[in-house]
Structure formats: structure tokens, C-alpha cells
Write a structure and sequence with these properties.
InterPro entries: SAM-dependent_MTases_sf. The protein has about 260 residues and is α/β, with parallel strands linked by helices. The chain has helices spanning about 20-30, 30-40, 55-65, 120-130, 185, 195-210, 215-230, and strands at about 45, 70-75, 90-95, 105-110, 135-140, 150-155, 160-165, 245-250.
Length: about 260
């Protein structure tokens, strides 16, 4: 018998291609690729996919460019949202206990955003405890159209990184992503907190790169990211051609101070 679902039914808002930015990042991230390709029986769980399963099918299609025929399970705590599966994607009722599964990768987008901040540690711990050895967990949020996204990557033991990704042509400044920070950080964008320092520095670097604006926002952001690195922020450097503007840092760079 599957364990009783842990969690609360949330709004379930979803949309086609809403999570494309995080999907693209997962497909290309070396650590995610390594864990999926070396796991003896890889499994992906999409936790809290919402009122319709579009983004679960999209996640499966994209990750199968890394691991063909990768099994994917969509979990929803609301039984009315559990639908029929197809193409090696199935759906079941479940919450933070992951319905007794031991996945290699869990994605939970726009789920904890709807919980109080003090509920995050227990939810993280519950999900982490149910990961397979070497498993990873993505806790993220995005806007309704998926133009602004942010997520924390965790393993079984701790948070590893924060990544912000946005549409270069519809977001004016890096700090505009602040309204979509994961729940663990969204109330920490204040003076004295590390996330505030990072976003402030990102805006300053963006302003400094203004002379490159005629070459497009992607070129301008690459220069801004370089400025951040030159100023001591350990911003990950991406050498492949990027469709999105992406800012990724180790968790210690933004970890709440208390």
C-alpha cells in the first residue's frame, strides 16, 4: 500500500511550455546528466504538476534526449488531477513522501511557493530522504508564462546551487527575478542578506554593461556575468550558446544568514 500523501492541495496553475527554461538547464547540466546516465534504474518524479500534465510530458521528452525511454512519474496530491499515463509516463497520487518511490531526480515547481516559509525545511527533508542514492531534487518557481524562473538544486544532504533564468527580451534587469525566488529566499531579498547582495551586484554589473546593449541582451548579460566573477561572485560560466540569460551560483553564495 502506498504511504498516505503528505502535503496540501495547491492551486494547480500550469501551462504549456511554462517550465522550458528549467528543462533546458536540466538537460545540459553536467551533474544532472551524470546522475541520470549512471543510475542503474533511473527514475524521474514530477511532483505537483498541477491541473493538467503538459509540463510532465515535456519534461519526459526533453530528458529522454539524455536517457532514452526514461521512466517519469507525475505525482499530485489531489486525486482529481491524476490522469491516465502514456509513453512510459504515468501518474499517481502522492506528496512529499513521493508515494514510496525512490527517484533519481525530483522536480517540484511552484509547489512550495504556496506554503509558508517555515514549512520548507521539513518538506525538503522529506523529499531528500526519499531520493535514490545520488539523487537530486529541484525546488523552483516561475511566472505564469515561464519568462522568469528560479530554482534550488539539492542532493540528499544539502542545497547545492541557486539558478535564475529569464527571457533576455522581456526582463529589464536581473533583480526583476526577485519576485519569483523560491520560497526559501523570497523573503530574504533585504539589506544584509546574501541574495540581496547578489541581485544588487547583478544590477550594477548589468548597468555597467550598457554600452553593449546594441548587440543584444544576451551579449550584454555575458559581460555582466563576467563583471560579477571579476568582483568575486562565483557565477557559473556557460561556454555553450545560451538561449536564456542564466545566473547560477553555489548555495553558499545566497544561503540565508539566519
Amino acid at each position: 500500500m502506498a504511504p498516505k500523501p503528505v502535503g496540501t492541495i495547491t492551486r494547480g496553475t500550469t501551462g504549456v511550455n511554462r517550465l522550458r527554461r528549467s528543462d533546458r538547464w536540466l538537460v545540459h547540466d553536467p551533474l544532472v546528466r551524470e546522475r541520470l546516465t549512471t543510475a542503474p534504474n533511473p527514475l524521474v518524479v514530477d511532483l505537483g504538476y498541477g491541473a493538467a500534465p503538459w509540463t510532465t510530458f515535456e519534461l519526459a521528452a526533453r530528458l529522454r534526449t539524455v536517457v532514452p525511454d526514461l521512466p517519469v512519474v507525475g505525482l499530485e496530491i489531489d486525486p482529481a488531477r491524476v490522469v491516465e499515463g502514456r509513453d512510459n509516463v504515468r501518474f499517481a497520487r502522492g506528496g512529499f513522501e513521493l508515494a514510496g518511490l525512490r527517484p533519481t531526480l525530483v522536480r517540484a515547481f511552484n509547489v512550495l511557493r504556496q506554503y509558508p516559509e517555515d514549512a520548507v525545511p521539513d518538506a525538503w527533508a522529506r523529499i531528500q530522504s526519499n531520493l535514490a542514492p545520488g539523487g537530486l531534487f529541484v525546488d523552483g518557481t516561475c511566472d505564469e508564462l515561464g519568462r522568469r524562473s528560479a530554482w534550488v538544486l539539492l542532493d540528499k544532504h544539502r542545497p547545492l546551487s541557486l539558478t535564475l533564468a529569464w527571457d533576455p527580451f522581456t526582463v529589464d534587469r536581473p533583480s526583476d527575478i526577485a519576485e519569483r525566488l523560491p520560497k526559501v529566499l523570497i523573503h530574504r531579498n533585504i539589506e544584509g542578506e546574501r541574495i540581496h547582495a547578489l541581485l544588487t551586484a547583478a544590477d550594477q554589473a548589468w548597468d555597467r554593461a550598457a554600452p553593449l546593449a546594441p548587440f543584444g541582451p544576451r551579449v550584454r548579460w555575458r559581460e555582466a556575468a563576467k563583471t560579477l566573477r571579476d568582483n568575486g561572485f562565483p557565477v557559473r560560466e556557460y561556454r555553450r550558446r545560451m538561449r536564456d540569460n542564466v545566473l547560477s551560483v553555489p548555495w553558499e553564495t545566497v544561503e540565508p544568514r539566519s
